Amino acid sequence: MKKTQNKQNKSRSSKTAGTRAAGKKKQDGFGAKDLLILLVTVVLSVGLLLASLVETNVITIRQIEEFLHLTERTDVGDSADLPDKARELSVSMIDVGQGDSILIRAGEMNILIDSGEYTEAHTVERFLKDRHIQTIDILIMTHQHTDHMGGMGHIVDKFDVRRVIMPDAPDELIPPTTAYESFLDAVERKGLHITPALAGYVYKLTDGDDPVTLSILAPLPGNDLTDLNDWSVVARLDHGDISFLFTGDLTENGEKALIDNNTNLSATVLKVGHHGASASSSREFLHRVHPSAALISVGSGNTYGHPSEDTLRRINRYTDRIYRTDLNGNITVYSDGRQLYVEKDR
């Protein structure tokens, strides 16, 4: 009787142990699967959350990348904290209303990109003379629309211009304006030679450990685009870790040509194309640039609706440091090759 009971207890014990082992095995298997499901759920949830936040501009793509240590953000300081070294390079977006005019000062070199409409010629002249500028080493006309070159004949007459660069656009694309004819006449009077803009030209503006260079990125050789805006001179200014990208009135088609050409478009500061028009600053283009700051030259209350809200939203995905001449007046960005400092009129 005792042996039978022991045998039954042993059998019962063996079954219980087996059941526990099977239960443990089953529990372990379910736990691993559950952990995997939980991990996937968390990743998807975070992804959806980040996408939602980017879409609503609560956070930017650049902020996400910084959080994940994929990229570093360039600090933008106030000009009140400007170190002496930062005075070596400055980029000024002159408030010329609905047009473009940009002054680059690198060491002893002065570069003027565009001059605004003819009605703004004296505004540009006064801006330059207030900074005791008499010589323009390089004068760049991005393209032959008057809101970019209307006052250029006046500038050529009033200053010692050393070199003129402009795109060799097809004649049928160039509007026959009085401003353009006046510019050509002024160039002839001064005995200047016009250098056709073409990708590949690089100008060394300063010497030293961190030389400042200006590279022409467009028009590309064989450019066959039929919009004069897409013949805009695109230039990149490099100084140490800092770079500026100047885009004229480039539209999405011109941007695509640069992307297809594998042009290095990454830049710290973007001069937004075509005054912030909706047909410029495409998503892919901005992704290639990844700006830390953006500059928009635009007239207050203009009839074109510039800058477009869509464009602003696209830029906001990368930075909230957007400076506009209609809101801030003249804007000057200084660089010491490591950091940016911004000075605004208002």
Q: Please give the share of residues in helix.
A: 25-40%
Rg, rounded, reads 30 Å
Order of helices and strands: HHEEEEHEEHHEEHEEEEEHEHEHEHEE
What would you call the quaternary organization?
single chain
Distance between the termini: 104 Å
Largest beta sheet: strand ordering:
1-18-17-2-3-4-6-8-9
Shape: globular
Unreliable stretches: 21-27, 65-73
Total of helices:
10
Strand proportion: 15-25%
Description:
- Residues 21-27 and 65-73 have low confidence and may be disordered.
- Helix 3 (121-130) packs parallel to helix 5 and helix 5 (152-158) packs parallel to helix 6 (178-189).
- The chain contains ten helices and 18 strands.
- It starts with a helix and ends with a strand.
- It has a nine-stranded mixed beta sheet, with no helix packed on it. The chain has a seven-stranded mixed beta sheet with strand order 10-11-12-13-14-15-16.
- The chain has helices at residues 2-55, 61-67, 121-130, 146-149, 152-158, 178-189, 252-260, 283-289, 309-316, 325-328, and strands spanning 76-78, 89-93, 102-106, 109-113, 135-136, 138-140, 160-161, 164-166, 194-196, 202-204, 213-218, 234-239, 242-246, 269-271, 293-296, 322-324, 331-335, 340-344.
- Strand 10 (202-204) and strand 11 form a beta hairpin.
Note the topology.
Blueprint: H1 2-55, H2 61-67, E1 76-78, E2 89-93, E3 102-106, E4 109-113, H3 121-130, E5 135-136, E6 138-140, H4 146-149, H5 152-158, E7 160-161, E8 164-166, H6 178-189, E9 194-196, E10 202-204, E11 213-218, E12 234-239, E13 242-246, H7 252-260, E14 269-271, H8 283-289, E15 293-296, H9 309-316, E16 322-324, H10 325-328, E17 331-335, E18 340-344
Parallel strand pairs: 1-18, 4-6, 5-7, 6-8, 8-9, 13-14, 14-15, 15-16
Antiparallel strand pairs: 2-3, 2-17, 3-4, 10-11, 11-12, 12-13, 17-18
Helix pairs in contact: 3-5, 5-6
